[in-house]
Amino acid sequence: MAVLFALTGPIAAGKNAASDILARHGFACIDADALVHVIIEEKKEEILSAFLPLAREGGVELLREGKIDRRALGSVLFKNPQALAAQEAIVHPEVSRKTGEFIAANGDKPVVINATVLYKTPDLLGRCCCVLFVDAPKITRFFRIRRRNGLPARQILERIRSQNAIFSQYMKSHADIYRVWNSGSLSALEKKIGIFLAGCEEKGYLQWKKSGFYG
Questions:
Q1: Is residue 36 part of a domain?
Q2: Bridge partner residues of 31 (DSSP)
Q3: Is residue 124 part of a domain?
Q4: Can you give the pTM of this predicted structure?
């Protein structure tokens, strides 16, 4: 049976960079946030039926070239907690199902579930031996988002503010949490993750193989 690790943290903290590092160490990594994007399109008709009236009230067009405009959908959902919860009820069960298939297909490797709000799928979080929480100062994340997405400052601040409570949500889960600050270079992040992996070995979560990979 695969050993599961949760990889999480707020926007632009460096989760994907950490995932790439772990993949080089032999972990099978699934990006649950990217999976959500796929599922949203697969569930397009259900999502349009649920949220098109709300979008029209706000003058928001949810379709672009026949596909769900995720940025437009987000502008509708993140201002309405009830609508967000309804969307999650559509998407999260499918995330759990597809992630379960990935885990089953990689039973010979340690598996990393890369997800911002994994605490909202307790069936998956509860299976993880520990949580690697990648974080960075808000000002660092602000400029990363500006370079990467080119969003207006107001939208960036709204996204950062919407995730202020993420760490406390994981603390409530009573999971074994290791917090890594990623405010420097990639090599510095690699060293910190190396320390995390050494700690996982000491706790018996991982075993270093002769092949040079974890198992």
A1: yes
A2: 114
A3: yes
A4: 0.91
